[in-house]
Write a structure and sequence with these properties.
Blueprint: H1 6-12, H2 28-45, E1 50-54, H3 62-67, E2 71-76, H4 79-88, E3 94-98, E4 111-117, H5 129-141, E5 142-154, H6 170-177, E6 181-191, H7 196-204, H8 211-228, H9 232-235, E7 240-248
Parallel strand pairs: 1-2, 1-4, 2-3, 4-5
Antiparallel strand pairs: 5-7, 6-7
Length: about 250
């Protein structure tokens, strides 16, 4: 499968279309997925001071991170995404950096928090070297005791969505984290196949009253459904999203 051209996505997409599902023209599916992810991010932000958004895209979390009182730096391999991020946050104290290669152009121990959403899932290779290299560099820019929150696509079926080129298991992520991080929490937050309630919302939400409230309720339902899933319920899924919170070990290179 050819790699996603993120520069082209940035030029053609509008808002969440460029970074989640480019085919979602109504925006209800993308808005629901964004809400599910933010529900996992928001409580984790409390007490953070300096956050790096790894693979930030257009910086869709920047405004909310800043509103939580946390310094925001976004990095991305796509110059067009970074340009869109800068344009979309004029006048805000958000920093955006183009970083096409590792190591990141950032000093050691610069942050107490790193966020990765839908990014590490794109780095899986047969030998796992790209994923391990990225995790190692994220550990480098984190201060000891700092935390990484990753929300990434995983699979128990060996399959994957069309947005990535290889299947990554939860264990693959844990193996990449192990040399540098202590895993503090792990939870599935979304199944690849959304429920019939989510499907109804996506099809009809724009005509329903209190759409924001409805989106919040459906988002909580989808996460609860994913959290309860296990065994055969997971293997029938093409993929699911897992949130892993990991603490940077002291003294690890």
């Amino acid at each position: 499968m050819p790699e996603v051209d993120w520069d082209e996505r940035a030029r053609q997409g509008t808002g969440l279309q460029s970074v989640i599902d480019p085919g979602d023209r109504d925006g209800l599916k993308n808005g629901l997925i964004d809400r599910i992810q933010w529900n996992a991010i928001e409580p984790w932000l409390r007490g953070r001071k300096r956050l790096l958004d790894y693979g930030c895209g257009i910086g869709r979390f920047a405004r909310r991170v800043l509103e939580a009182g946390v310094e925001y730096t976004g990095v991305d391999t796509s110059a067009a995404m970074i340009e869109a991020g800068v344009r979309g946050h004029t006048g805000m104290p958000a920093r955006f950096l183009h970083a096409p290669h590792l190591p990141l152009p950032l000093a050691d121990a610069s942050f107490d928090a790193v966020l990765s959403v839908g990014v590490l899932q794109c780095l899986q290779t047969a030998d796992g070297s790209q994923l391990r290299a990225a995790v190692a560099d994220l550990a480098r820019v984190l201060e000891p005791g700092g935390e990484l929150l990753m929300i990434e696509q995983a699979s128990a079926s060996g399959r994957h969505s069309g947005s990535v080129s290889a299947s990554t298991s939860e264990q693959d992520y844990l193996d990449a984290l192990e040399p540098h991080f202590e895993v503090a929490a792990q939870r599935r937050v979304r199944l690849g196949a959304l429920s019939r309630y989510a499907g109804f919302y996506i099809r009809h939400g724009k005509w329903l009253p209190a759409s924001d409230l409805l989106r919040a309720l459906v988002a909580r339902h989808e996460t609860a459904r994913a959290t309860r899933a296990f065994g055969a319920q997971l293997t029938v899924q093409v993929y699911f999203d897992v949130a892993i919170r990991a603490v940077r070990r002291p003294g690890q290179a």
